[in-house]
Automatic annotation (TrEMBL):
Its EC number is 2.7.7.41. It holds the Pfam family CTP_transf_1. It comes from Ancylobacter dichloromethanicus. Signal peptide: none annotated. This is Phosphatidate cytidylyltransferase.
Amino acid sequence: MGSALVLGPFVVLVAVYGGWGFSALVAVASIVILWEWLRMIGAKPRTPLLVIGAATLVVAILLLAIRPPPVAIGMVVLGAITAALVARSNPERRTWAPFGVVYAGALALPAIVLREDAAFGLVSLVWLFAVVWSTDIAAYFCGRLVGGPKLWPRVSPNKTWAGTLGGTFFGMLAGMATLYLAGVESALLAAPMALLASLASQGGDLFESAMKRHFGTKDSSQLIPGHGGLMDRLDGFVAAAALVLLIGLIRAPGAPAQGMLLW
């Protein structure tokens, strides 16, 4: 709990300042997640794959400063293809190793692209934090207090339908409250977007749980005392951020933060 209380405010503070400091923090976090991913799946050779993936992520982040997001996304795809050519071991791990580059990129690119929006950059990021964190907290307490049928016991034995519904409801409310407090005028305070982001966050959590169970790993690493690895803390954020960025780019290619919040 102490680690979370320190890391959460620190991340928000860096996000408030934005700029290269925030980009550097995101770059480091994405590289750590790539390392945890390769460690989790037992990919070989791990060091060359990590170097390829890290270089890909750094170049993609640098490209965001001079090119539109699709160029950086293309760089991530190219890095994943290169990782696939380098990876060896059994066929299954060769399949999953390059996907780690994509997964790490799904953290790095959305966070930076959204934050760089001149009008709604900070609001969009705080909105995303509010939805994901509220979903996670509410799902835990609703599941503990209400109990009831399990959501997917084979993948995540502790998750219940009550927790899922409670997390979705409170995550949506948190997103709406964020826009209200920020004075953003949007139809229904963008409730459908908060709903989708909350569901995506829980889907990302289930996805990582399924991966860890499949590869026989309890935690992605032990970097955060009492909380496992960074990927264990950011799995929901990765999925939600990737989804809302995609929607934002479809609706407003030049201003994705506005595209996801203004309806």
